[in-house]
């Protein structure tokens, strides 16, 4: 257990930040999953909005420092490639 006041404060900060990061990452994963399901599904009307929302959530996670920019680029590229492939069909 930490003894100094600064170490105890750092522990509190780390836990608060960890919980925020978990929430942001979970929301991002949920939107990615919804976008991929929309691309696989039959409803063509919801595809653009769900893909745009997923990309927005990925960008939000990057801006908060939860994921690395290259990781975000990889995720966005994957979604956009699948969106383009679903439009071809």
Secondary-structure blueprint:
Blueprint lengths: L4 H36 L6 H17 L5 H20 L1
Description:
The protein has 89 residues and is mostly helical. It has one domain: Ribosomal protein S20 (Methane Monooxygenase Hydroxylase, Chain G, domain 1, Up-down Bundle). The chain is 82% helix and 0% strand. It is built from three helices and no strands. Helix 1 runs parallel beside helix 3. The longest helix has 36 residues, at 5-40. The chain is elongated.
Key terms:
single chain; mainly alpha; Methane Monooxygenase Hydroxylase, Chain G, domain 1
Write a short abstract of this structure.
With 89 residues, the chain is an all-alpha fold. The protein is built from three helices and no strands.
Instruction: State the separation between the terminal residues, measured CA to CA.
Output: 59 Å
Give the topology string: H per helix, E per strand.
HHH
CATH-defined superfamily: Ribosomal protein S20
CATH topology: Methane Monooxygenase Hydroxylase, Chain G, domain 1
Which of globular, elongated, flat, extended, rod-shaped describes the shape? elongated
SS-derived structural category: mainly alpha
Number of strand segments: 0
Percent in helix: over 70%
Helix segment count?
3
